[in-house]
Design brief:
Blueprint lengths: L4 H22 L9 H14 L5 H16 L6 E6 L2 H11 L9 H17 L4 E6 L9 H16 L3
Parallel strand pairs: 1-2
Amino acid sequence: MERWSFNLQIYFLNSRFRQILDIRNSGKNVIQDRTIYEDAYIFAPNLHAMGLMTNRDFENYKSLFDLMEEVTESPDLIIYLRSSIPNLVAQIHKRGREYENSISIDYLSRLNERYEAWVHKYNKGKLLIIDVDNLNFVDNPEDLGNVINRIDAEIHGLF
């Protein structure tokens, strides 16, 4: 991880930045699974805090992100799916992806703490927080309908 964390984070940053440019050039409405902010405010700082990215590499990463952020627009809406650690673990097991089996509870906890800190400071646009511990919007049409209604209300207003 120490050897490749910076390279991988730069790859993700570049990929997300290219997605932003492609979205802007397409003129279409797009839903993204991850944002450029998550890389910069959650994943890269977490690797740095864990000692897996050097100070120099982290500062270079942040400098590049700050430059990219200056020339991009914020999303119209960020949807944060808030989840407890037990629910995250259950979802990981349900997906059954072998490469996710090595994710530690400590790592998930660190990420969850960083997400919570980030959403409390987020001020670049609309933010919708959905607590997913008691929702099953994949299998339950009523839960999905409630989520869609909340998103619609956030984007278009109540009336």
